[in-house]
Structures are given as C-alpha cells and as structure tokens.
Amino acid sequence: MRLHYDVAVRKGLFSLSGSALLDWRHDGRQYEARLEASGLVGSRAQRSTGRITPEGLAPAYFSDKSRSEQATHFDRANGRLVFSNNRPDAPIETGMQDRLSVLLQLSALVAGQPAKYPPGTQLALPTAGTREADTWVFAVEGEEDLALPGGNVRALKLQRLPRRDYDQKVEVWLAPRMDYLPVRLRLTNPNGDTVDNRWSSTDKG
C-alpha cells in the first residue's frame, strides 16, 4: 500500500510545500516501509525493514538519508543497536521500534484492539533513531474530523509527550476506515519549525 501526502513545512518565517510517499509492504513474515519526502529544499528518505512477529514489528535495519545517510542495525543476536556513525552501542529493549516503524506499530496495536485505547490511554514504545534510543510515550487524545487533500476523514489522534526540552513533538492521526494507517503526521521541533504531512491519496497493490 502506498499513501501519498501533501507536505507543508514552516521554517522560521518561511513556508514551503512538497509531497511525501509512505510505501508499506509485507508478506506476513517480513516487512519493508519507506517514507520519502520531495519537492522541498532537498529530499529525505527513511527506510525500515524487519520481521512481523506475534508482538508486532521487529525492525532489523533503519536508515535516514537527507544530505548523507545514517543507519541503525538491530543486532538481536547480541541484544544491541549498532549505529553507523560510531555512536556507542545501545541495548535493544523489548518491543523496540525505529522512528518509522513506530508509526506502523501504533497502527497495528490500535487496529488489533481499538477498545483498549480510549482517550487518556498512554502507550510507551522504546524507539531507536540513528544516534540514540529512547522511550517514546504516546497519549491517545480522541477522534477528530479532518479535512484533508484526499477528503474528509475521521481519525484517532495520538501525541508523543516530549520528556526533555529538545524532544521533537510528534502528532499522528490514525484512520479507522483505512486500517488505522496514519492519514496525518505533524512533527514540531523545539524551535517551533513544523512539518505537516496530510493524506491526499492511496494506491493499493
């Protein structure tokens, strides 16, 4: 499945627009996800690959490429994360995701048992980037009606609760009628810059 998004970026006093594509594919055992943004100042691509387990996604590799590419290897045999930029290794925690798979893991968790996640519920997911790992805590805020480029959609909003001053704020809206896949994703940096991805269309393979 491919989800297309219109992207609006606010950087200081400047506003930019572009597009993004979330490509999600799996065979029931292995998965690959790719999120690529273009049409902005440069492009950025994130990719996550791994296994599908009874507990959800188990990433094996995560990469993030803008000007250069950095990657994280999930060395599960030795229980550690290995970063390509020579940062110190970090332990792999139970259920650990990467910064792309965490969105799809949220989708899978909520889709599997929607009644388990009423407003006020919090989900804690260990999440690895390309430099470090941390626990991301998402709060379920409730359903909202969104007017998106692809049409009007009712979606469940979850928000990552920043724990430190430099943490990125992450807001994600999951649409029940679209298998709880993310129809909107808004990232806010500590300096106020934002990237807002809003669903415009879907291609199904």
In short:
The chain is mostly beta strands. It is built from 1 helix and 15 strands; from the N terminus they run βββββββββαββββββ.
Summary tags:
205 residues; 15-stranded mixed β-sheet; 1 helix; 6% helix
Descriptive notes:
There is one protein chain. This protein has 205 residues and is mainly beta. The protein has one domain. 6% of the residues lie in helices and 63% in strands. It contains 1 helix and 15 strands, in the order βββββββββαββββββ. The chain has one helix at residues 101-112, and strands spanning 2-11, 14-26, 30-40, 42-53, 56-65, 69-75, 80-83, 90-91, 97-98, 122-128, 133-148, 151-160, 169-175, 181-188, 194-203. Strands 8-7-6-5-4-3-2-1-15-14-13-12-11-10-9 form a 15-stranded mixed beta sheet, with helices on one face. It is globular, with a radius of gyration of 16 Å. It starts with a strand and ends with a strand. The relative contact order is 0.17. The mean pLDDT is 94.
Radius of gyration: 16 Å
Secondary-structure class? mainly beta
Number of domains: 1
Low-confidence stretches: none
H/I helix tally: 1
Number of strands: 15
pLDDT averaged residue by residue: 94
What form results from the Cα inertia axes? globular
Strand order of the largest sheet: 8-7-6-5-4-3-2-1-15-14-13-12-11-10-9
- What's the story with the biggest beta sheet? 15 strands, mixed
Please bin the fraction of helical residues.
under 10%
SSE run: EEEEEEEEEHEEEEEE
Percent range for β-strand residues:
over 45%
Our measurement of the CA-to-CA distance between the termini, rounded to an integer number of angstroms, reads 6 Å
